[in-house]
């Protein structure tokens, strides 16, 4: 499909909710949510192009290609309108999907993500990071960012979570990760399309997130008409794994209100 094979979970029945993972992770990051929500909703979680068990395509993968892959998967599953939930890069893919095909989106859940276009300085950094993946593999980067992906106290307090996050990062294809990072370097600004959103939207952020701080989530919340904001205490960039019960409670309340 789109000349790639997509690995995915598809569980439960009811309103379809698509979970889009961040970088450099895979669909297993959503396991706590899939287990709990599949009793009441149809939950779909793909591995993105270049990640997990999905085909690796070297080069550059723009967010628009990730969004097209999602819609291709949904077409194959005969699913029309969906709730889209994405974390970090996954959130930017969700924003791109909403910008491109708003008629396919029933609601938005944007988790620890940023709507801003990349800056010229940020673009240079991303290209350098992509080069480092190809040169050094994923190990050095993974070790370096672990205590930003999850908060330092959770690295100590939640060793199983820390091990899972590290395993996902180290296990990611350097070629796939590099292609995605190059694509993100070219991303547009999503504030305009978000300001015109007509569907329910939930913005979630970990209180201790350094990558996309609470202030970024608050600005997104102000931009999206009628949106809801939830700040998860005791979590950084991955509240769905650091505080899975609190995170899933927030998501479930939002879904129940649709």
UniProtKB/TrEMBL annotation:
One Pfam family this sequence matches: Abhydrolase_1
Gene3D superfamilies in alphabetical order: alpha/beta hydrolase
Domain called AB hydrolase-1: residue spans: 16-244
Family matches, as InterPro entries: AB_hydrolase_1, AB_hydrolase_fold, AB_hydrolase_sf, Epox_hydrolase-like
Signal peptide start-end: none
GO molecular function: catalytic activity
The protein's name: Pimeloyl-ACP methyl ester carboxylesterase
């Amino acid at each position: 499909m789109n000349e790639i094979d997509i690995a995915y979970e598809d569980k439960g029945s009811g309103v379809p909710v698509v979970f889009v993972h961040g970088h450099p992770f895979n669909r297993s990051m959503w396991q706590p949510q899939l287990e709990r929500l599949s009793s009441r909703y149809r939950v779909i979680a793909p591995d993105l192009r270049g990640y997990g068990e999905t085909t690796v395509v070297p080069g550059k993968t723009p967010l628009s290609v990730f969004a097209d892959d999602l819609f291709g998967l949904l077409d194959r599953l005969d699913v029309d309108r969906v709730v889209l939930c994405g974390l970090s890069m996954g959130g930017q893919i969700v924003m791109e999907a909403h910008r491109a095909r708003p008629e396919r989106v029933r609601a938005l859940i944007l988790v620890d993500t940023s709507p801003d276009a990349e800056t010229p300085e940020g673009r240079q950094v991303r290209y350098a990071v992509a080069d480092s993946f190809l040169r050094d593999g994923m190990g050095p980067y993974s070790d370096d960012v672990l205590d930003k992906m999850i908060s330092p106290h959770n690295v100590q307090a939640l060793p199983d979570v820390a091990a899972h996050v590290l395993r996902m990062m180290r296990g990611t294809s350097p070629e796939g990760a590099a292609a995605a990072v190059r694509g993100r370097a070219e991303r547009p600004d999503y504030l305009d399309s978000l300001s015109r959103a007509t569907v329910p939207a939930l913005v979630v952020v970990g209180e201790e997130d350094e990558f996309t701080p609470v202030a970024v989530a608050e600005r997104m919340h102000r931009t999206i008409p009628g949106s809801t904001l939830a700040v998860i205490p005791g979590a950084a960039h991955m509240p769905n794994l650091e505080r899975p019960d609190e995170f899933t409670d927030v998501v479930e309340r939002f879904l129940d209100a649709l």
